[in-house]
Amino acid sequence: MFVLTTLVYPLVLALLCVGAGLLVDRVSGGWLAAMLLGAVGAAALIAVSQLSTYVTPLAPATPYLLVAVALAGFGLARERARALVLAARTARWQLLVCPLAYLLALAPVLLAGRPTFSSYMALADSAVHMLGADFLIRHGQDYSHLDLRNSYGLYMHNYYASGYPSGADTLYGGSSFLLGLPLIWTFQPFVAFMLATAAGPSWVLVKRVGLDGAWAALAALTVTLPALVYAYELIGSVKEVASLPLILSMGALVVSHRRWLGAGARGAIPFALLVAAGVSVLGVAFGAWALAAALVLGVIALSRLTPRRVVGLLAVGTLVLVVAAWPTWVNVSGSLNVAGAIVSTSNPGNIHTPLRAWQMLGVWLGGSYLELPTGVLLALSSVAIAFVLAAAIVGVGNAVRARWYALAGWFGLSILLWLLLSTYATTWANAKTLMLTSPLAMLMAWAGISALRRSRIPVLAPLVASLLVGGVLVSDALQYHASNLAPTARYEELASINTRFAGHGPTLFADFDEYALYELRDMDIGGPSFVYPPPALAAAGGHGKPVDLERVAPSALLEYPLLVTRRDPTAVRPPAAYRLLWQGVYYQVWGRRAHASAAIAHVVISAPPTRPRAQCADVGRVAAAATAHARGLSHLGVALARESRGSGESARAATTRVRLVAALAPELVAVRLKRTHRTHGWGRTRAGIVMHGSGTLRASFTLPHAGTWELWLKGEVMRAVDVAIDGRELGSAGGQLDGNSLVTNPLTPVRATLAAGRHTLTITRPGANLAPGDGGAATLAAIFLVPVGPAGEPVLRSVPVARWRVLCGRPLQWVEIVPAR
Prior knowledge:
Elements: H1 2-28, H2 37-54, H3 62-76, H4 78-87, H5 92-105, H6 107-112, H7 125-139, H8 151-159, H9 167-179, H10 183-197, H11 199-208, H12 213-224, H13 227-234, H14 238-255, H15 269-282, H16 287-304, H17 307-324, H18 326-329, H19 332-344, H20 375-401, H21 405-424, H22 427-453, H23 460-482, H24 488-501, E1 507-509, H25 516-519, E2 525-526, E3 562-566, E4 578-583, E5 587-592, E6 601-604, H26 616-630, H27 636-640, H28 649-654, E7 658-664, E8 669-671, E9 677-678, E10 684-685, E11 688-690, E12 695-703, E13 707-717, E14 721-725, E15 728-733, E16 750-754, E17 757-765, E18 778-787, E19 795-800, E20 812-819
Parallel strand pairs: 1-2, 1-3
Antiparallel strand pairs: 3-5, 4-5, 6-20, 7-19, 7-20, 8-18, 9-12, 10-11, 11-18, 12-17, 13-16, 13-18, 14-15, 14-17
Helix pairs in contact: 1-2, 1-3, 1-10, 2-3, 2-9, 2-15, 3-9, 5-10, 5-12, 7-9, 9-10, 10-14, 11-12, 11-14, 12-22, 13-23, 14-15, 14-16, 14-22, 15-17, 16-21, 20-22, 20-23, 21-22, 22-23
């Protein structure tokens, strides 16, 4: 799977894009630069996938239509394809730049050696794109059959049925389905591929400012991968990353206007396709970047072409633009609403403080683009940024002096666009604009370096270039090192659950993980912690909060034949109407018993993780409520508020109509974090102990009896930690994250056979190395042990109401009143 997703998939996608690019080149007159074929081909495939999914019956055929377009390109433009193959022998730098950009962009996944995706926990929008890409290829842009009572349907309705741009998703889904690969594992390769595609137009642009060979390759890479762009690629901002090659390609067409602007009306096809694809990918907001390029081209066309030729270009361009982005135009009001919401939203997402304007200049020597570098790194960042800014100023001056008016005009209008948005838009939109403008600032810095090479002091050029390249690479390396990688095994287990229980939903997902929406897509899942909770369960949680099944009305659960929960000995057992159907390493699946009625009442006795033994007064109030219900009294609240007094023959007869079912808590030994001895610098936060750097934690605990015990750690751990008891190594745990720091779940447990009495636990975090994510999450929220066997699992106890006293003094999680059969 790893080789298929990271190497075979991008190779197939590259062939599709180049083939489609050759077709566009043939149709438009055969003038496209070789390095633009990939980006223009991607634009054409986006248009094809948008149209095929718009015509719902054609949606499942989208993968094959992409192949047909590519094959048509290779067939009709075989002479151009043959010429490109022959030219490749002397074009080693051009051949290297896009693959190298891909390898750098996907470095965290490639060096992890397993299918995964990067910067997990940073932003969960990628979960929506996985969900949408799967739905659009399977069902097309038809949302009429969605179940709006559950989270899956609500997500699709509130995003895609409301005008959310899907151009990147249809290409992503269609290309992944072609090879039958899980979208969750092709997501990061797709994003990295789209970013690498931007290296093609970057090459054309840096050639225009006078660079060639190795200089052009270095420049193209840094224009493609500045720190802020790399950060957005790591967090999977697929819309913005997919827009970047389109924006840069428009710029490349601007600076190479002499090749096509006067070649006839069909010369407008590539530019129109780029705009159409951008509108499909980013929505009508892409029009701002298209306008910057179109204004420059308009001035050039009006000054050099006859009115007839201008009209011809406009007519062909408009026709292609309308047809290729037709699904967006027919729902343009929804697209405008989405764009307006992004520009005006007060919700900053994961950006709690506005980004700095100087992040545009490509260098950011820190592990996160959201945090200011500190100490020496801040000083070095400031020096590097100052040099980049100086080089960019020299580059702008050189562009004007050399009469590169098209390039200078496009750059100037793009900067004006950024200034306008930074003035009137909010934090979220500003950050996106800053990221999309960053490659242009880097391009101007390289224009300055090109000018230095031809100046009286050419020795400055390699010095400034080394500083620029080194600053970008170090910035990207720091982010690579701090990236959190998605847990492969856990998501593979979710996929196996989906295969086993597909079509048996609706399913209540009692955890917070938005990627489960894709992994359990055939089970119609919902949960109160999602952004869009099922209306009937909204009161049982909140976005990102732990799911509290205790707050779900028993009648609301009647809609859910299945429950999926995390394996967690401290969690409360689901209601008695559910039995365990399947258990894996990470999850449990519970099924509603046949003909099980809703509980009459569900009463919490104790809250996890503490398990005090039930007081007779508490159990007695539940028994009183059961008696009241059996005798026809409907106000259970009154009965719960008083002690049981019913003792007559009629009461005993009535209580045979109901029973009490109690969940007995498992045996649990907690290790108190407050009493641990730990390395200096390992501080405490609301999330638990934060393990800054390497170090050791030691804690003592006492077991009530000998036996085989499971040790559970709760937290978010990227770099593996080693676990030992009494000096004996038990194993290690790492790369186990939950995607949200607000909800911590257990890591996979380790087993040990231990004697009764006192023991010493040691948790060691080794020093960091160059592995991806080794500087990632490291928090420890809880430690506990449970015995292996029945004592470590919750047990149901059913008793007649008259015998309620047998439940007194037991460690109860809850007691239910259920109808007797």
